[in-house]
Amino acid sequence: MGYVYILTNKPRGTLYVGVTSELIGRVWQHKQKLVDGFSKKYNLSILVYYEVCDDIEQAIAREKQLKNWHREWKIKLIEEFNPAWKDLFNEINQ
């Protein structure tokens, strides 16, 4: 199983598209600022979107696709899935 996810710092803020095989643990790492790089630099720790894929290869392919999308396409995807831009971490961490 694999996951593609999008983090932000605020509604319509900076977006980060990532991929992982363990969504809860990976988002927790982002929230604790344990992941060096873009997400840490821009304080991206709000999970606003995720997709579940059958395997990690499918997730990686989807991540590459989303990274090539225009910003407005990503925003539309998020707002269809999560119109309030709420942090979905608590929902997946139950």
Task: Set out the fold topology.
Layout: E1 2-8, E2 15-20, H1 23-31, H2 38-41, E3 46-53, H3 56-67, H4 71-81, H5 89-92
Antiparallel strand pairs: 1-2, 1-3
Summarize, please:
With 94 residues, the chain is α+β, with helices and mostly antiparallel strands. The chain has helices spanning 23-31, 38-41, 56-67, 71-81, 89-92; strands spanning 2-8, 15-20, 46-53.
Task: Give your account of this protein's structure.
The model has no long low-confidence stretch (mean pLDDT 97). This protein is globular. With 94 residues, the chain is α+β, with helices and mostly antiparallel strands. The chain has 5 helices and 3 strands. The longest helix is centred in the middle third of the chain and has 12 residues, at 56-67. Helices cover 43% and strands 22% of the residues. The protein has a 3-stranded antiparallel beta sheet with strand order 2-1-3, sandwiched between helices. The protein has a single domain (2-92), classed as 3-Layer(aba) Sandwich (GIY-YIG endonuclease).
